[in-house]
Amino acid sequence: MEVTHSSSAQAGRPAPDATPSGSVLRPRPVRKSFFASLTLLDWAFALLLAAGAGFALHRYNAHMNYYDELVLVCSVPTFAVLGWRWKPVRLLMVLIAALSIGAISLYQGDLGRAETSFFLKYLLSSQSAILWMSALLVIATVFYWIGMLTRSPSGGSIGSRLTWAAVLMGFVGLMVRWYESYLIGADVGHIPISNLYEVFVLFCLITSLFYLYYEQHYQTRALGAFVLLVISAAVGFLMWYSVARDAQQIQPLVPALQSWWMKIHVPANFIGYGSFALSAMVSVAYLLKERGVLADRLPGFDVLDDVMYKSIAVGFAFFTIATILGAAWAAQAWGGYWSWDPKETWALIVWLNYAAWLHMRLMKGLRGSVAAWWALTGLLVTTFAFLGVNMFLSGLHSYGKL
Question: Which sequence spans correspond to the domains of the chain?
Fold first, then answer.
C-alpha cells in the first residue's frame, strides 16, 4: 500500500500547527518592548535633558537645597518619557531652554536691562513673554472659531500653531521670571508659582498643553474653539489683575510659602484644575451637539465622552496627590494635617465631587448629558474653590486673597 506524504514532510519541514477545523495557526507578530522601540534620536533627547540638568546643577547649585536637586534629577526621566511618547513636546522643551538661557544671558546680572535691551523689553523679559502668551492665546481662540464656523482646516491649523507659540512664550516667561526674582535679591528668589498672577499663567499653560495633546491624539481641532474659551477667560482675569493690582511685580514669599513643598504641591494642583476645566468645556461641546448645535462640526459623542472621562481621571489623580502633599505641608507649616480652613474644605468638596463622578462612571456606566452637566457643574465648584474662597472667605490661606 502506497502512503502519500505532504509536501511539507517531503521537504523535511514540520507541518504547521492546525486547529481542529484544519485551519492553519499563524504565529503572532512579536511586539517590541517600549525601550526596544526607542530610536537613536530618542536617546539623544534624553541625553540632552541629562546634560541640561547637569548644567543647571553646576551653574545654580548655590541657590538649591537637597530637595531642589532631587526634583531636578527626577525631572530628567519624567520629561524624557514624556518626550518619547509625545514627540512634538521635545522641540518645545528645546526652544524653552534656548530662549530662556538666551534671555538670562542678555540680563548680564542687571535687572535694569529689561528696559534697555530691545529683545528683553519687547520679547523675552518675563512680563513681555507673558503678554505675548496672552495675546497669542486670544488670537488662537479666534482662529479656532473661524476654522469651526467656516469649516476651514487652515483656521484650526493656525489656531493650533498659535497655541503652541503661546505655550512656548508662557514657559519662557516663567523661567525668566524665576531668574529675575534672584536678581532682585537672593532672599527674594523663588519659583514663580506663589501668587494668583503666577498660577494663572501656569493654569493657561497646563490647560493648553493638555488640549494640544488631545488634539493630536484624537486628530481633531474642533474642541479648540471651546477649550481656548476658558483659557482666554483666564487671560482676561490675568490682564485685569495685573492692571488693577499691579500683580506682575515680583514680591518676596510670605513665611508660609517658604517651603520646598510649594514646588510640587502647586503644579500638581493646577494639573488637576486645568484638566477639570478642559473636561467642562468638552461637556459644553457635548451638550451643544446633543441639541443639534454645530453637531456636524464636532467629533462624535464617543470621542467627546472619552476626552471628558480621561480629563477628569487625570485631573482627579493629580488633585489627590496635591491634596496629600498639601496636608503634609500644612503639618510642617501649621502643626496639623487638616484644620478645616475654607480653602481645605472647598478642596475636599472638589475632590468628593469628582470622586463621585468617577465612581458613577466606573460602577454605573455614567455617560451622556447627565455626565456632561455634572462635569460642567464641577467647573463652577472648582472655580469657587480656586477664586471664590480667596474673594469671599478668609483663613490660613489668606495670602492668596485678591
Answer: 44-85, 254-402
